[in-house]
Design brief:
With 250 residues, the protein is of the alpha+beta class. The protein folds into 2 domains: 74 residues, no CATH class; 171 residues, Glutaredoxin. It contains 11 helices and 5 strands. It has a 5-stranded mixed β-sheet with strand order 1-3-2-4-5.
């Protein structure tokens, strides 16, 4: 008998043995139920691997269901993912391949992969790059993302320079530091600070967080390239390979 079959029988017997009689013609007496329940418990004590295997099987089933839901979300929410006007876009806005990155300015892995992204955009002028500001590493992350989105709202041509400066920054990203970086990149600090309080930024960040939940994205960086959802940092060779795959399938 298979593990699944054994577990179903054990579960059924255990339920039967531990459920109070509901009718006069119940085939088991209270004492019999107690005895059957003890047999099942004794079996599980002697064969605990059955429970471990069941837990593993359940985990794999749940993971498969989560992947399936993310795949559906990737299809049904493609427009929100790639074409939300509140989301910054770099590279070639008319490029024939779109890469979406969920990132956090305080994420070490995001900073580590950033040079590969710069190299890719420089080498391939036909990539549209979507920046999903996804601040999940604390208050300083949110400050940096709010500042970056304020720049996007105020002067889209200056977003990439500011994004690059934040990605290149090491150490604290307090509001004072972020505004200092903004000043160094030629931005109007007073205007930027006012823009960071725009309620539209709260809405944009909330939408990104909801989209990440739908796609089962729990960390940064995470990339969407075509139908591929890739969690974690990737190298330039992988980026180029995935871009080539998308072009080949279009």
């Amino acid at each position: 008998m298979t593990l699944a079959g054994t577990l179903r029988i054990l579960a059924a017997v255990l339920v039967l043995a531990t459920t109070p009689a509901l009718a006069a013609d119940d085939p088991l007496t209270t004492e019999q139920r107690r005895a059957v329940g003890e047999i099942v418990r004794e079996y599980l004590r002697k064969h605990p691997e059955v429970l471990l295997e069941a837990i593993q099987a359940l985990r794999e089933k749940q993971e498969a269901e989560t992947r399936d839901k993310a795949k559906v979300a990737l299809s049904t929410r493609r427009g929100e993912l790639e074409n939300d006007p509140a989301t910054p876009v770099g590279g070639n806005p008319q490029g024939n391949v779109t890469i979406v990155e969920f990132f956090d300015y305080r994420c070490g892995y995001c900073k580590r992969v950033f040079p590969a992204i710069q190299e890719l955009l420089k080498a391939d002028g036909n990539i549209r790059y979507v920046f999903k500001e996804f601040p999940i590493l604390g208050p300083e992350s949110r400050v940096a993302s709010r500042a970056a989105l304020a720049v996007w709202n105020q002067d889209r041509d200056k977003y990439m320079a500011f994004h690059t400066a934040l990605m290149s920054a090491r150490g604290s990203l307090s509001e004072k530091r972020v505004l200092s970086i903004a000043a160094d990149t030629g931005l109007d600090v007073a205007k930027l600070k006012a823009g960071m309080a725009d309620p539209a930024i709260d809405q944009a960040l909330a939408k990104t967080h909801a989209l990440a939940r739908a796609l089962n994205i729990n960390g940064t960086p995470a990339f969407v390239i075509g139908d591929n959802l890739i969690p974690g940092a990737i190298d330039i060779a992988t980026l180029k390979h995935l871009v080539s795959q998308v072009r080949g399938s279009s």
